Amino acid sequence: SLNNISWNYNERGDYVTALSYLEHSLAIFREAGGKSEENMILNNIGMLYNAWGDYATAFKYLEQSLVISREIGDIRQEKLTSWNISQFYEDQGDLSKAEQYMARIMEINEAIGLPDLEKDRTVLDDLRTEIKEQ
């Protein structure tokens, strides 16, 4: 619930209050040992910092989420976090790094047959074309 409430504040542009709710939620899940939920909240905090324009902090949280995703085998969250990191790098102009994360997304899609396969393949192909043109 705290996570959901945070997004109401996020939508209003009240990032400070949104962050407060996310941090509270994160503390609860860490205390309870809810790794999957902790993972999701770390990703959400990263995206909040990204929206806020604090890219270094955003990346720190996204990387934590990615590590937990891999530790616990949460492949869907790994895909989501990899997508967010890819977009982060693309926004920063580092297309090579963005391409690395998109390639991992494609591996996940192909391994488990996710429905986004063709859409993600197009994004990856576009990134690779842009990299070649640079």
Please describe what this structure looks like.
With 134 residues, the protein is an all-alpha fold. 87% of the residues lie in helices and 0% in strands. The chain contains seven helices and no strands. The relative contact order is 0.09. The mean pLDDT is 89.
Summarize the structure.
This protein has 134 residues and is mostly helical.
- Helical content stands at over 70%
Beta fraction = under 5%
Q: Provide the low-confidence segments as ranges.
A: none
Distance between the termini: 45 Å
Average per-residue pLDDT, rounded, comes to 89
Oligomer: single chain
Rounded to an integer, what's the Rg over CA atoms?
15 Å
Shape: globular
Strand-pairing-aware structural class: mainly alpha
Major sheet description: none
Strand runs, count: 0
Please, how many helices? 7
Task: Sketch the topology as an H/E string, one letter per element.
Answer: HHHHHHH
